[in-house]
């Protein structure tokens, strides 16, 4: 059937976000809000931002926690909520808004050869200049060890906030 309205959005989310204290919406947002393809950082002041981070999914909350722990007001965390079609116009507006940022990052918890990074490269020319913070390239997404996986995850997070890391 062909219709002239958008179909409902179905969101798959990891269980870790179901009871996360920061993953909430007000009644007003639920009643009159709408899906946002890109969510800007409401706490960041554009003039102070030196590092602009584009991120998707639950990894945002890990980065937010680290930013709060480090008390970094020079880092903006921008969520890309829709990957296809990629909201390139909205992403360009964000890049213009944070013109003082000398470090633009694509952050993902997946290995560099997996996740959304290759898709972003194909559809957003500006991404060629992004600093990529992800796990190294691997044949499999799983580390095979909880300890190793947590260490790799922590290293990616540290890399987002320290551009001098490898």
**Main sheet properties:** 5 strands, mixed
**How do the strands of the widest beta sheet line up side by side?**
1-3-2-4-5
Structurally, the number of domains stands at 1
Question: What would the CATH topology be?
Answer: Rossmann fold
Number of strands: 5
Give me the strand/helix succession: HEEHEHEHEH
| The CATH architecture | 3-Layer(aba) Sandwich
- Unreliable stretches, pLDDT < 50, 5 or more residues? none
Mean pLDDT: 92
In DSSP terms (H or I, runs of 4 or more residues), the helix count works out at 5
Question: Which range best describes the helical content: under 10%, 10-25%, 25-40%, 40-55%, 55-70% or over 70%?
Answer: 25-40%
Task: Describe it.
The protein starts with 26 loop residues before the first helix and ends in a 5-residue tail after the last helix. The protein is globular and about 50 Å long. The model has no long low-confidence stretch (mean pLDDT 92). The protein has helices at 27-32, 59-70, 88-97, 117-123, 146-161, and strands at 38-39, 51-55, 75-80, 103-111, 131-135. A five-stranded mixed β-sheet has the order 1-3-2-4-5, sandwiched between helices. β2 (51-55), α2 (59-70) and β3 (75-80) form a beta-alpha-beta unit. It is of the alpha/beta class. The chain has one domain (34-161): Multifunctional 2-oxoglutarate metabolism enzyme, C-terminal domain (Rossmann fold), CATH 3.40.50.11610.
């Amino acid at each position: 059937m062909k219709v002239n309205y958008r179909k409902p959005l179905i969101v798959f989310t990891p269980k870790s976000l179901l009871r996360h204290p920061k993953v909430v919406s007000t009644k007003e947002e639920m009643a009159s809000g709408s899906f946002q393809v890109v969510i800007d950082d409401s706490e960041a002041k554009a003039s102070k931002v030196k590092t602009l981070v584009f991120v998707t999914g639950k990894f945002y909350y890990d980065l937010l926690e680290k930013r709060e722990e480090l008390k970094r007001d020079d880092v903006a965390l921008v969520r890309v909520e829709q990957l296809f079609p990629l909201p390139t116009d909205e992403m360009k507006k964000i890049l213009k808004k944070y013109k003082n940022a000398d470090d633009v990052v694509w952050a993902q918890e997946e290995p560099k050869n997996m996740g959304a990074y290759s898709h972003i490269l194909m559809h957003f020319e500006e991404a060629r200049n992004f600093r990529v913070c992800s796990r190294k390239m691997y044949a499999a997404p799983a580390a095979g060890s909880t300890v190793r996986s947590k260490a790799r995850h922590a290293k990616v997070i540290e890399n987002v906030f320290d551009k001098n890391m490898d």
